[in-house]
């Protein structure tokens, strides 16, 4: 269990800058400094907060979303990059753990990624949402099992999932079985309406109870001007309000402090780490309350790759270095070698 008796956690609910990555990043760095000034040891930001969550994909048909999708590519975050280095430096300067949601750009694809920076600035975890939801599938690629990991940090053992990944009980159980102490949940906020906030609350409170851990959840916020900039249609604008439930939940399934459901702000709470053992004494879902001989989970934790080298590519000579009369024919050379081997075997 955690060596710390108490951890001060901060969950940030703020609006992104919908015009630039640098503008949103500046808000992140300001919020880290503000949370650190209030004694926070852990600070959590909303889902894909940098540069912004792709709200446009929820209200625009795919045929009209190309321009905004390309703009998201332009402002997305590569890992590593100056943007991630700036967050790492801020975590190191203030001595706190930072969990940030980003749109990660990896060559020609975007991913919903969660970054966990330790208090010394080290990037402990970069994971990608394993299955984008509904409209998000037009925006992001899929993550893999390598990101379903719990990591040790200065604030304790941390695991993270994004949004509706919390509706995947096996993904949650994977983190539970690695004994997470603080679970990070991130949702977009300002989406769907009040029912979304209610669903978020049910989900994170249940996970806290089932896992016997704290849950720190951050959701985003949009101003009325930002909503109007995304779509002028008043009917569609209703889908870009509500859905905010920035909250900090104890292992007993209770709010440690009242949640933040409107406006911008930083929610702060002191996590009494002894409550983890108090809960697990009664019900440890991956320990004395588990029946692994009857039910267990198998995880493919390999990182997925579109290319695997079973043998290294042979380095080809530079044609300019070949003298007159020489030629380079890799296919022919390989065929000659096979014939020589066959002849040797026959002899």
TrEMBL record:
InterPro entries noted in UniProt: C-N_Hydrolase, C-N_Hydrolase_sf, Nitrilase, Nitrilase/CN_hydratase_CS, Nitrilases_CHs
Coiled-coil ranges per UniProt: none
Top-level lineage group: Bacteria
Listed Pfam families: CN_hydrolase
UniProt-recorded Gene Ontology molecular function terms: nitrilase activity
Residue span, CN hydrolase domain: 7-273
Region (Disordered): 312-337
Protein family membership: Belongs to the carbon-nitrogen hydrolase superfamily. Nitrilase family.
Cited PANTHER family: CN HYDROLASE DOMAIN-CONTAINING PROTEIN, NITRILASE
UniProt protein name: Nit6803 family nitriliase
């Amino acid at each position: 269990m955690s060596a710390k008796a108490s951890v001060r956690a901060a969950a940030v609910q703020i609006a992104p800058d919908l015009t630039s990555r640098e503008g949103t990043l500046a808000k992140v760095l300001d919020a880290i400094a503000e949370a650190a000034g209030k004694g926070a040891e852990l600070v959590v930001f909303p889902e894909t907060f940098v540069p912004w969550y792709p709200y446009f994909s929820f209200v625009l048909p795919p045929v009209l979303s190309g321009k905004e999708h390309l703009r998201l590519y332009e402002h997305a975050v590569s890992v590593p990059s100056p943007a991630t280095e700036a967050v790492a430096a801020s975590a190191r300067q203030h001595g706190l753990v930072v969990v940030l949601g980003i749109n990660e750009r990896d060559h020609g694809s975007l991913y919903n990624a969660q970054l966990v920076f330790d208090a010394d600035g080290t990037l402990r975890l970069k994971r990608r949402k394993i299955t984008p939801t509904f409209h998000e599938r037009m925006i992001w690629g899929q993550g893999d099992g390598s990101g379903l990991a719990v990591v040790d940090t200065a604030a304790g053992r941390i695991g993270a999932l994004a949004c509706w990944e919390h509706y995947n009980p096996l993904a949650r159980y994977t983190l539970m079985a690695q004994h997470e102490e603080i679970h990070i949940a991130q949702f977009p906020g300002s989406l769907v309406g009040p029912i979304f906030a209610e669903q978020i609350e049910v989900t994170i409170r249940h996970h806290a109870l089932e896992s016997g851990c704290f849950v720190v959840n951050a959701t985003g916020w949009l101003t009325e001007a930002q909503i109007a900039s995304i779509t002028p249609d008043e009917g569609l604008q209703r889908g870009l309000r509500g859905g905010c439930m920035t909250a900090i939940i104890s292992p007993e399934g209770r709010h440690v402090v009242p949640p933040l459901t409107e406006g911008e702000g930083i929610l702060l709470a002191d996590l009494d780490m002894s409550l983890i053992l108090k809960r697990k004494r009664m019900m440890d879902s991956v320990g004395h309350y588990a029946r692994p001989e009857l039910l267990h989970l198998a995880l493919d934790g390999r990182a997925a790759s579109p290319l695997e080298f079973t043998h290294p590519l042979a380095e080809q000579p530079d044609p300019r270095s070949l003298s007159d009369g020489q030629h380079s024919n890799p296919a022919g050379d390989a065929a000659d070698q096979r014939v020589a081997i066959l002849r040797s075997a026959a002899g």
